[in-house]
Amino acid sequence: MRVILKTRPRAKPKIPIEAETIIPQNFLRKNDILVYEGNKERKLEDLFYVTTEGPAVSPDQVEVILTGNTGVIKRVGEYMNAGRIIVEGDIGMHCGNFMSAGEIIIRGNADSWLGREMRGGVIRCEGNAGHYCAAGYRGEKRGMRGGMVEVLGNAGDFAAEYLSGGEVHIHGNCADLPGVEMRGGTLTIGGDCLRPCGNMTGGTCRVFGTAHQMLPTFRRNGSEVTEYGGKQYRMAVYRGDVANRGKGTVLIRE
Amino acid sequence: MTGMLVKNAYVIDPLSGVNGEIMDIAIRDGKIVEEVGSGAVVIDAGGCLTLPGGIDSHSHVCGTKVNFGRYMSPEDMRAGRTSRKGVMHVTSGYSVPTTFGNSYRYSSMGYTTVLEGAMAPLEARHTHEEFTATPHQDMLANTLFDGNWSIMEAVRDKDVKRAAAVVAWTLAAVKGFAIKLTNPGGTEAWGWGEDVHSIRDEVPRFGVTPAEIIETMIQANELLNLPHSVHIHCNNLGVPGNYQTTLDTIDLAPDLNKERQSLYLTHVQFHSYGGSTWKDICSKSEDVARAVNARPQVAIDMGQIMFGRTTTMTADGPMEFKLYMLHHNKWSNHDVELETGSGIIPVYYGRKSLVNCVMWAIGLELALLTKNPWQCMLATDNPNGAPFVKYPEIIALLMSRKLREYEMKVIDPRTEHFVPLFAIDRELDWYEIAVMTRAAQAKALGITRIGKGHLAPGAEADIAIYPLKPDELDPSVDYQQVMAGFAKTSYTIKRGRVVARDGEVIVEGANSTIWTRAEVPPEFDLNNDPEFVKKFEQYYTVRMRNYPVQEVYLPRGVSISTEASL
Fold first, then answer.
1. CATH topology for B54-107+115-449?
2. Chain A within 8 Å of B329 (Cβ-Cβ)?
């Protein structure tokens, strides 16, 4: 089944839409789907032109396509456990919160908190991601625990903060403090970053650009050769964060 | 006002000696009266269990440390969210909910009076502000004196009257209700990076021992004729082998008061551990319960833990640091100048952890082994053992051996080697539960005289009607219904108004804050004591005139006045 949601023109297009109900499993049932526009509860049909094509018997067979002014829609794919969501543009904050399976593809940019505390599944963002991409929520001890987040562009601050499982791959640059408080999982940064992996206790971070202002609490532990994008790179290996008795690994291109 | 009539109620009112009689209760002007006119609003209880409003004798719901728990656990705020509905505010939070969240949840469980377990005197204003925002319960605040320098000086000089004067002045200044000692001496020692390990250890730099502090405060409390006794959180909380400290503390309690206990030990579950390390921790609830059974001058509360996520918060700074060393998660420690300290860390009690299972069993054992239910109250030390919303589950566990056996199958199988719980057959009945959740609290706190905890004419009309028919239910089998029934009242009536109906709050609250004012002779009034004033101005960072909490912080304050026998 394919569900196409095209945003309707609104009098105040900047008012955010909170749409944690836009997940494939909800479209299987015939119930009304309710979303919030600002602090007002609305039916999905009031804010979107909804077109449904084809049948589905399980959420795996549902594909949701969001088009139009999608940059103001928040929390799409929260607790998603199957199926696929394709966003033909930008997406608002908190896309893919806690998702455990399925796939989200974003053709534009993603706002902050993309894939926060994700448990499984795949998120692929073809533009840039905002701050706290694949991070934990404030106060939570563990962030993303499984699955895969891939960002083809750049990511903002605190990418993969509290990462404890799964894989995060940012092809472009990261801003300040990627992989801070990491406990497990793998973070790969194709470009440059600033102050990576502070306080990390486990997991692996690989930086194929330049790590600016590398923290002094990492201990050099030889070098190794790693393949990335079909090329061989010679990487400096660091262990840390020593300040936190950490056993994480940071690989930085020499 | 036309009044209200609750008809057909299955009443259990232990303080008035009523046990399961079908009767009518008449209410006028917020009080229970003999009868009302025919124009009264009638509520048909339909033979359902009707009890005096619940009283929680030890809970942490308001104050600076609770608020610190809130803002250090933003993840906790994701749980328990409810949206605005009628008069109800938005709420959020599970172990440390918003003040309205606490108030609504207590109300839907039929609780109408709550005692905040620990208020640092210097930070009393915040506590009182949050009391005002907990609108459906009458609030009382235990005031911390465990590391109060003036008290310690009086104890060192063996001057009980001086200690009593300090207590009287402080309670009146901060609008507190009773004396709370949290790890007496230990918290202050922790301010210097040290701790005390038994009640006979000297508190470094002060030349007193915890035992001396406890004994002096018990005597000072009785000199002031305060409604409640000294409320103590013993030393060595959460340390394997600490039951000895608890027994020593119980031994200190003299029998000085005919109407109530002379020493109230709180969350005793955390103080009844045998063994010497976490690996061989075992239950010593039998020893502690035997000591309590032998001494009617002592009352305790369970401090039951329940499995799940919660937040621990206490004025016991060193204990929280030890917990941090176990969990290595976020933590906080705080020192209140010249008075006390505090600490907060989030925890998770798991069924897979043997230590947690032993702790879980100890709380239940204390309640089941204490023969007199008036001596052992039901509490979780909310939120340290579990959030108070777990009370119905605890009631069900106490009432049903079958449920305990069921639980036994899902917890760590080694537990039974370390605890006697599964050999105890006792199942509490409705009357005993009524005692343990309201009557014993009212008696222990000494608030029966202001009409709390009973339903005799003249009492405050605080009533909880639960959708449970004791005649038709067998709690040892129908524990699910017991749990559901105690979680949601049909009606919660507070001071003659129906405040909650089927678990939903339907009116704006108007609670009062109850505090005590002990009238002391002028020579014991510390406002006129040049030495006290001088030291206050010298050591505190606040001026003495700015220290007392103004009346404006207690919009509906009720003071209990007592005449001190100094």
1. TIM Barrel (3.20.20)
2. yes
